[in-house]
Amino acid sequence: MTNIIKFKMAAKKPVQGILAGMLTTVLILTATCCKAQLNPYQATYYQNRYLNNPAMAGLEKGLNINLVYLQQWTSFPGAPKSQSLTTEYQPADKIGLGLNINDNQSGIFRQTRLMGTYAYHLPLGDRNQKLNFGVSLGFNDSRINYNAINGDLTDGELSKYNEAKPHVDGDLGISYTSDNLFIEGVLPNLKATFFNSYEQKVDVDRTVFFAAISYKINLSGETGAFSLEPLAACREIKGFTNIFDAGLDFKMNKYHIDLQSIYHSNDNLGFGIAFDQETYAINFAYNLSTGQISSYTNGAFEVGLKLKLFNK
What we know:
Blueprint: H1 2-12, H2 17-36, E1 63-72, E2 81-92, E3 95-106, E4 109-125, E5 129-144, H3 156-163, E6 167-177, E7 181-187, H4 190-194, E8 207-215, E9 217-218, E10 226-237, E11 243-252, E12 257-264, E13 268-276, E14 280-289, E15 300-309
Helix pairs in contact: 1-2
């Protein structure tokens, strides 16, 4: 869709010299921009699993508020950036409630998604074993930002794209959790999955299915001062090769520090550090590309803040 718009702009309004060079750069970036957006928040894997899976809402007691900001390809104007706000609360045993707001911007495109979540946590036995179910329901709105366009604003494709109204969307998730083991599966973007009419607007590199498993290994006996949690995940992507993720989280509970690394099979590698306190947590992550575009980008950085309220 982006390529069609850019070519039409070029046809209706010729550019010369520097402007022609800038347009060529935009087209090259467009061809690879989708690949840059295939890496989700790194916080999804360890700090805030509710970002991706509604079944994880309200697993912890109290009210948890998470803010995350992700900026990709900082060396290019119009580079993808994302920001999210999630809140989750456990009003009663076995029940979790959540709110997930996400805003994504990439060039002239902007997508806003707001989801409310209900989760049910079924206890299974000792070691805090639970089978968790969650569903999110809300709306998804995609728009073109006219202020970011350097071209013909009367192009019919632009107005046609913005004529579509926000649509109802949802996510469905399930997970098994215990003190050590996490297994989860998610069906996101239910509107696009079950209704083909959604594809008439945009259907680029969306996640069709997500699954992950991780196991926490205690490295310091009964003290629990140090632990290591390896993770493996798979994402089925519409119109793209499935992506496999492998991660490690080294937790130093005595010092309230986590060190993390995530590798994505689409030639990306992420590193992160988190400072986890009793009432708040702060995490930083940096993702670098190891593929063909690595010499053209400054990678991506992510920062997150978590507030833990009423958890006593």
